[in-house]
Amino acid sequence: MGGSGFRIGSVRGIPIRVDISFLLVLPFLAFGFARAFRQAAALASVPPEMMQGRPFVWGLAVALALFASVLLHELAHALYARHKGGKVEGITLMMIGGATHLTEPPRGARQEAVMALVGPLVSILLGLIFWVIHLAVAPASFNLRFAFFYLGSLNLILGAFNLLPAFPMDGGRILRSLLVPRFGPVPATNIAARVGKVFAILFAIWGFATFNMLQLLVAFFVYTGAEAETRAMMVRALLGGLLIRDVMTDQVALISEDDSVERAVERMVSERLESLIVMREGRPAGVVTLDAIKGLPPAARPVTPVRGLMAATDPLAPDDEAVTALQMLRDLPQLPVVEDGQVVGAVTRDEMVRRLKLSELQSTRRSRAAWVREQQHARPTG
Strands (DSSP E) along the chain, which ranges? Predict the structure, then answer.
């Protein structure tokens, strides 16, 4: 799980990271909550002058508590996904909320819908719990009454906001999963993304009209998030059902980690290759690329072993899903495929791109055929 930020811990083996954008926005959120301090106190039926502590301190505490609630929201997504057979890479807390990173989502549109729904349900449940606690502690403490009222309200807003049918928010994912049975995964993703962009434009108009910078930030991230999620889900949809054995080639170029870089250069030139799979004790240990070799001075190539330039990577298995190779192929032109301890092939970036283009072309052909059939059925008879 890339990106700028740092890890703060894990829950049931799921890594939790904080993006640097979270730290940048935290003081602004605290300031915003502090500005709304008196209005929030009045809504909670708490006289502001009876509150202990400065408004900014309250704002900071509420902002941190809100992000803790967002973490619980994302954990609901992650734990449900893993329970249903999905693979969770981790959770990241960011500027405007959180994101659960899945390397493999649960199978089926229904499971996708439920996975998207559990997050907002947890937020709404938290909101109701905090609201009940706020009523229970009302006679005991103005501070506690205010704190639980504020957290309850924010969690209810968080849950309701995420249920908007705006991709990439949870409501958009639910919308997409409901559209898949009728339209198929690719058209459903496109429709959900368009709806998300419409909401983003509406958020932006509202932000400009009210001079609300936070609203403009939300609009920006919803729009760009819709773009990014569309690309990611399109890829998953287009490669759905394909295994590594379906996209791999059995033409594999191997080189020992003890061979010199000069030897690798000779192999690449004579065999017209841009990378070689590096072997260590009969097993693949990594990949050495043309770009890595170009950074080494020619005089050093005869005395430098290949292992000094190779990029370490884990091998794939023939029965792995093809989509699992995409993240790894971002930085490497090929990956080794191993079965029963032997290298049986390789998956190349070029082949994956070719498969994606062909799958996209095939999906548009199916969509066109479905549209023609629909028009024929709609045509009046007699």
Answer: 5-11, 14-19, 87-94, 97-104, 254-256, 275-280, 283-289, 311-312, 334-339, 342-348
